Structure formats: C-alpha cells, structure tokens
Amino acid sequence: MSSEQVIQEIRAFMAARDWDQFHSPENLAKSISIEAAELLECFQWGPDFDADDVRAELADVLTYCALLADKLGLDTDQIVLDKLAVTGQKYPVEQARGTSTKYDRL
Amino acid sequence: MSSEQVIQEIRAFMAARDWDQFHSPENLAKSISIEAAELLECFQWGPDFDADDVRAELADVLTYCALLADKLGLDTDQIVLDKLAVTGQKYPVEQARGTSTKYDRL
Amino acid sequence: MSSEQVIQEIRAFMAARDWDQFHSPENLAKSISIEAAELLECFQWGPDFDADDVRAELADVLTYCALLADKLGLDTDQIVLDKLAVTGQKYPVEQARGTSTKYDRL
Amino acid sequence: MSSEQVIQEIRAFMAARDWDQFHSPENLAKSISIEAAELLECFQWGPDFDADDVRAELADVLTYCALLADKLGLDTDQIVLDKLAVTGQKYPVEQARGTSTKYDRL
C-alpha cells in the first residue's frame, strides 16, 4: 500500500464521522504531542516495552501527523527528505560522526 | 517517492554519521515527544503559525517515527491501517459522528 | 520563601510585561508540555544530564504550572495533597509496594 | 501548609510503596512529560475544559516535579526565582512588553 492510499483511508474514516471540524492545525499539533506522550509512557520506567502497545501508540502519532500534513497540503515523504538535507548541513559527517552532541555545541 | 525509498535515505543518513548507536526504542520515543513539543511550540500562543516552522518540525517528528518503526520492523502504513480498524470499533459511526467525546464517555 | 511570595513575584513579572493576555488556561497547558519536553531533552540520549540545564528547564515547567494554578484559583500544595489521597486509593500499599505496574493491571 | 510539608508527604507516600527505586531523574523527566500531555488532553479539541480533570492532571505534573527537585536537592521556589531573573534579562520590559515574540526574534 502507498502513502496516498493510507491518507485516503484516513480521510474516509474522518469524513464518515464528520470529525474534520475538530482538525484545526493547532488541535492536530496538540494531538500529536498527546499521542507522543502515550508512546513515551510505554517506556516510563525503563527501556523494556510491550511491543503491541508501542505499535498502537506509534500508529496514533503517525495518523495525526498524516492528518496535519494533509490539512496543510504537505507530502510527508517530501518534507522528511527536505529536512534531512537541512539537518545534513547542520551536522556534517566529519564533525558529527559518532557523537550525539547538539549542533550548537559541535 | 515511496516510503521505502525514504527510509533508505534516512538509514543512509544515520549510518554515515554512525548514529544508530543512540537509537534505542526508548531514546526514539523520547525524541518523538521532544520534536512533537517543538511542533506544538509553533502554536504556543494561539492558532496562527509559521508554515515553514510547522513543516520543519512535523518533518522531525515523522523522521523519528520512521526510525522507530524501522528499528522495530514495522511498516508505518500497515500499523496506521490496523489501528484505524481498532479505532473504528471504539467509535462506531452512528454514535461517534459529529462529536469529539472520548469513547469511554460516548 | 513561601509559595505565596513566589506567585506574587511571578505575577509582578508578568504584569510588568503585560503578558497575562497570552495566559489562557489552554496556552498555559501547551506551555507546560513544551517546557516538559525541553526538560526531557536533557535526557534525550541517555540517563546522564547537565545539572544546570535540568535546573533551568524544571524551573520553566514549575513557573507555567504556578501560572495555571493561579489562573484557576488553585493552591498548588492543596491539589497535590488531594491527588495523593486519590492515588493512594488506586495504589493500596499492600498491592502496589515494590512494583511499577499501572493500577488497571495490578 | 508549606512546600516542605508537601514534599514530606510525597516522600512518605513513595517510601510506603517502595517506589523510589523507579525514580531516576530520567524516569521522572519522562513522567513529567507524560503527565503534562494528560493535562494538555483536557484542551485537545478547544479552549473549554473540565475543571476537575485539569486540577487532577496539574497535580500529577506538580508531584513529579516535586519528586525530581527533591531527588536533585533543589528548592522549587528558589529555582523558579533564579530562572525569573534570567528570563528578565532575556526579555527586558521595554522590548518585551505586550508581545509574545520569542527573545531571539525580539
């Protein structure tokens, strides 16, 4: 299945429930943070996790991300590639290799 | 471009910098929350937002999501579709249409 | 110094800058999440952390919490004590001692 | 009641359940983000909120903040005041009054 078919399924799901009215960009951004924290909760007390819970919560984050991208007319693949290019500039391989140091302290 | 090519670009980017060592599932979950909050910051004081900032931050969230999915051997499209099916059960169209009420209070 | 004096200092700080207009409960809730993620960022790649950074970010979370409590007429000490009583019911010592299991799975 | 008595109540609560073992600074930082998002969820679809829910979730954020401060030997009032002083430098009244613009764009 392609990303285009997935967004069509999501659109159909939301339309059937007349939920688009709640999906302002701001509400979607809040929702992404809310679901991201539910994903984080799978790791609240340590590195071990329930694979089913992580799978479900990651899916929720991705769904709201897809909705926000769609609302703003963005292609999720394209914005990721564009950002990778920018990040590549901030973290040249020679300086960044092997370290997690943030770019402003490289 | 397909999602498969995007994840390959992301893998190559991370491999060139030897960053996979930092990408435990827990660290990726923390990163998703951190980037989700940077996206939320675009809306901190109201509904208006800078489109370029939102685009960049959404891309960061999606990138870490793609990394986590890849680390766990998950297909991002498939887990979204699977979760939609589960959500459809919790929110039947007849009861959920037009309302944002959470399923346990429907 | 008491919590009452701290909230007075915070109120004076915000009044001098005419910032109360931005402090709707919703904006304050968003701000708490945003700052909580900046605190989390101190631990993004592992358990080690810079003490000064953690101190500063924790202070930001607490400041926005104080503002939200003040906006809603809540006493921060009282609501914490009230919630401890509720949590004590959900996690009786006999069942909860020594385990991090969530109450619905105890 | 003073903040010192509240932290003693929290310490006693946690000791009775032998929960200190889970309270690494990193786990507490994750917990603060998780609870902050539950607070944010009260405002997921708009500015209206249930006062009881907000009160309970804000209490959870504050409790984990108190635990983290205690773990690191920090006084919550003092770190807030110290940070206000720093923030005052970044946002002089003359330039910052009446605007929500971030300091790096003032």
TrEMBL record, chains A, B, C, D:
SUPFAM superfamilies: all-alpha NTP pyrophosphatases (SSF101386)
InterPro entries in the record: dCTP_Pyrophosphatase, DCTPP
Recorded superkingdom: Bacteria
Protein name per its UniProtKB record: Nucleotide pyrophosphohydrolase
Organism: Myceligenerans salitolerans
